[in-house]
Amino acid sequence: MVNAYAPGSGSALDPADEALIARRTAVLGSPYRLFYRDPVHVVRGSGAHLFGPNGEDYLDAYNNVPSVGHANPAVQAAVAAQLGELNTHTRYLTDGVVEYAERLTAKFPSPLDQVVFACTGSEAVDLALRIARRHTGREGIIVTRNAYHGTTAAAAEISPSLGPGNPIPDRVVLVDAPDPLRGETDPAAAEDFAARVRDAIAELERRGVGLAGMIVDSALTSDGLWLEPAGFLARAAAEVRAAGGLYIADEVQPGFGRLGDWWGFTRHGFADQEFVPDLVVLGKPMGNGIPISAVVGSADLFDEFGGDVRYFNTFGGNPVSIAAASAVLDEIEGRGLIAHASAVGDRLRAGLREIQADAERAGSGAGLAAVRGAGLFVAADLVAPGADHTGAPASAPAPDGDAALAVVNGLRERRILVSASGRAGSTLKIRPPLVFDDRDADRFLDGFAEVMRELG
């Protein structure tokens, strides 16, 4: 795993933390991982900050789950009040789940007018795959080459980023995402991606499984946060639909204002029509850390599936989770957090590009390339020293995962938390809570500049 703690690889740890790590390893076992060369021990959070046991202040530029801020008072109050009144399942008639569903679906274009609730993004992905496969009568799914969609058996088999120990079955075909770092930025890149999807559809036919659908994280997060060229996902969806499949937008990471709009898929609309997926998957930031997720779709698809298949999720859409999710919508709307994310994100990217330009003028050995993103989802690649960072195809700068890891850990030493992603682990992943403000951005940029100077 990118940015995983390896025992013995860091500096001398605090004895109390060392003892806690030993206890954790003994009782939780090897499947669990910690971040950073020196793991971060936290005891509380507030806004875009996490705090250690001795009051250490960490700037959180990574966690999108507490989208409206760690320990958000409005979410706390809503959850506490609801927990003191009622918490049960959706087979009883309650007001909150209906009111929230109406608010949520109103933020989607027609015909996405119904929602089914679950607890985790993995569960929602699993349900979306079941709907697609039942609708089409086929099994094949197309995903991007380094995708991550979850940890259930069905979600893991479409998550190649989980590594070589996670086998990808024959009913799943991988396609390369557009890569602007290697020159795929002009409109032709959308057609190239569509052509790869056509080839994948044909491959599924050759394997005898046929196409059920394609699922893509609307920000291609695990592939390295690729948002351009605009419209390339809509072109891919057109190919999928022409072959009788469904297009599923995974909005678990980009949704709820992260990219400066409610949903990531809206960045990919055709010029003359709105791009509307067949199904949309939601999760993580939906409840600010309280487990809740959803599949949004059309009445036609849900009627077809629900008429034949009994679906029930005991805790999906329970009143406490719905109260948290409702408070999240209140916070996003009432505090103008989508516009805020756009403005602060612009500030971050502009500052990073200045740091990149300074490093290039100084002939720095650390290669920072392709700063990109939207809203408060920002990425930058670390490439081999001396590479041409213009993005011209001939330059093909080599990704430098070691340099990215050095930046991640250099920032952690300054109590600034980010991580890395992408096939080579060379893409910095900067994804703070939506309440991250100008002062937080300045602290981040100051620390980042210091780290880049050290690496140079």
From TrEMBL:
<dbReference type="InterPro" id="IPR015421">
    <property type="entry name" value="PyrdxlP-dep_Trfase_major"/>
</dbReference>
<protein>
    <submittedName>
        <fullName>Aminotransferase class III-fold pyridoxal phosphate-dependent enzyme</fullName>
    </submittedName>
</protein>
<keyword id="KW-0032">Aminotransferase</keyword>
<keyword id="KW-0663">Pyridoxal phosphate</keyword>
<dbReference type="GO" id="GO:0008483">
    <property type="term" value="F:transaminase activity"/>
</dbReference>
<dbReference type="InterPro" id="IPR005814">
    <property type="entry name" value="Aminotrans_3"/>
</dbReference>
<dbReference type="InterPro" id="IPR015422">
    <property type="entry name" value="PyrdxlP-dep_Trfase_small"/>
</dbReference>
<comment type="similarity">
    <text>Belongs to the class-III pyridoxal-phosphate-dependent aminotransferase family.</text>
</comment>
<keyword id="KW-0808">Transferase</keyword>
<dbReference type="Pfam" id="PF00202">
    <property type="entry name" value="Aminotran_3"/>
</dbReference>
<dbReference type="GO" id="GO:0030170">
    <property type="term" value="F:pyridoxal phosphate binding"/>
</dbReference>
<dbReference type="InterPro" id="IPR015424">
    <property type="entry name" value="PyrdxlP-dep_Trfase"/>
</dbReference>
